[in-house]
């Protein structure tokens, strides 16, 4: 159980680097990554959404110590990521194929995050069985 817990912690730490890094970059530099000129309001919205992304990544990092006891938080964060991914998927259908980076983001949002959530649930259940406790 301990080995699987450590592997889960390492995997989540690595994957959560994506929203932390991209969110922080977006907050600091805005739309500069795309090179597109946008209105001040669109820039403000982009930075706000980047801040949310940063917060989600930090939220995942906050589950790392005692990851086996943070199922509720982990599920909520995963739900937020999946909802964002569904929004991206709808956009793909409405406006076409985005850049390769955005398609990669879609894969993380709709495949990787749910798999990590299922894995976290497995580790939490193993912990509960081993310690005779249920998650609060």
Automatic annotation (TrEMBL):
Keywords carried by this UniProt record: Membrane, Transmembrane, Transmembrane helix
Pfam families registered for this protein in UniProt: DUF4345 (PF14248)
Parts of the chain that traverse the membrane: 12-33, 45-64, 76-94, 100-119
InterPro entries registered for this protein in UniProt: DUF4345 (IPR025597)
Organism superkingdom: Bacteria
Name this polypeptide is given: DUF4345 domain-containing protein
UniProt source species: Microvirga aerilata
């Amino acid at each position: 159980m301990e080995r699987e817990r450590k592997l889960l912690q390492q995997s989540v730490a690595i994957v959560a680097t994506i929203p932390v890094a991209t969110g922080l970059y977006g907050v600091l530099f805005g739309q500069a990554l795309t090179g597109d000129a946008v209105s001040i309001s669109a820039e403000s919205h982009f930075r706000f959404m980047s801040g949310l992304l940063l917060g989600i990544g930090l939220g995942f990092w906050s589950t790392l110590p005692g990851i086996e006891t943070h199922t509720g938080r982990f599920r909520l964060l995963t739900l937020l990521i999946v909802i964002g991914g569904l929004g991206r998927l709808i956009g793909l259908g409405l406006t076409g194929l985005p850049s390769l980076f955005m398609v990669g983001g879609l894969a993380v949002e709709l495949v990787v995050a749910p798999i990590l959530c299922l894995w976290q649930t497995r580790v939490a259940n193993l912990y509960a069985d081993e310690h005779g406790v249920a998650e609060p």
